[in-house]
């Protein structure tokens, strides 16, 4: 079977993805996570915390919630429904790290969890830092001009 014939075969057999519906779900769920984060920060500010502390506690709370939900198996169910909406950077990153750690725990703490905890999140860290450096250099050069 050549590539063209195979492509036609796959197109006839593959289920069509409801793109608009998936985008709407991701937008609404991601927005709900961000809204919850904003509400958390407002709550922390109501307790009289400085803005910087409230922001830090909001991040820590979101990370804790994502890891907890990953650990008890709820985050995957939410992600199945919400799609990319759960990949709001802080919760998605926490889920990626926790999932890798959970998957590798049977191999021990050193060779399992320690060695494989950043398998999924590693590229995110690498490219995030690289993009930040490139942006910083461009910003620096533009400010010099």
Quick structural gist:
The protein is an all-alpha fold and 145 residues long. It is built from seven helices and no strands. Helix 5 packs antiparallel against helix 6.
Principal-axes shape call: extended
Derived from helix and strand composition plus strand pairing, the structural class reads mainly alpha
Q: Sheet with the most strands?
A: none
Order of helices and strands, N to C?
HHHHHHH
State the end-to-end CA separation.
58 Å
Taking pLDDT < 50 over at least 5 consecutive residues as the criterion, the unreliable ranges are none
Number of domains: 1
Cα radius of gyration in angstroms: 20 Å
Mean model confidence by pLDDT? 88
Total of DSSP H or I helical runs spanning 4+ residues:
7
Proportion in helices: over 70%
Work out the number of β strands: 0
Percentage of residues in strands: under 5%
Q: Any overview of this molecule?
A:
- The protein is an all-alpha fold and 145 residues long.
- It is built from seven helices and no strands.
Question: Keywords for this structure?
Answer:
single chain; 145 residues; mainly alpha; 7 helices
List the helices and strands and how they pair.
Layout: H1 3-13, H2 19-46, H3 51-71, H4 74-82, H5 89-104, H6 109-116, H7 121-144
Helix pairs in contact: 2-3, 3-5, 5-6
């Amino acid at each position: 079977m050549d590539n063209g014939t195979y492509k036609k075969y796959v197109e006839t057999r593959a289920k069509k993805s409801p793109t608009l519906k998936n985008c709407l779900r991701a937008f609404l769920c991601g927005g709900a996570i961000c809204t919850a984060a904003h509400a958390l920060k407002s709550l922390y500010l109501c307790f009289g915390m400085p803005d910087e502390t409230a922001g830090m506690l909001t991040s820590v709370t979101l990370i804790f919630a994502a890891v907890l939900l990953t650990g008890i198996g709820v985050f995957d169910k939410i992600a199945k429904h919400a799609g990319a909406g759960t990949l709001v950077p802080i919760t998605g990153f926490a889920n990626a790290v926790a999932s890798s750690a959970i998957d590798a725990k049977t191999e021990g703490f050193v060779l399992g969890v320690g060695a494989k905890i950043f398998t999924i999140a590693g590229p995110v860290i690498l490219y995030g830092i690289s993009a930040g450096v490139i942006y910083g250099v461009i910003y620096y050069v533009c400010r010099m001009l």
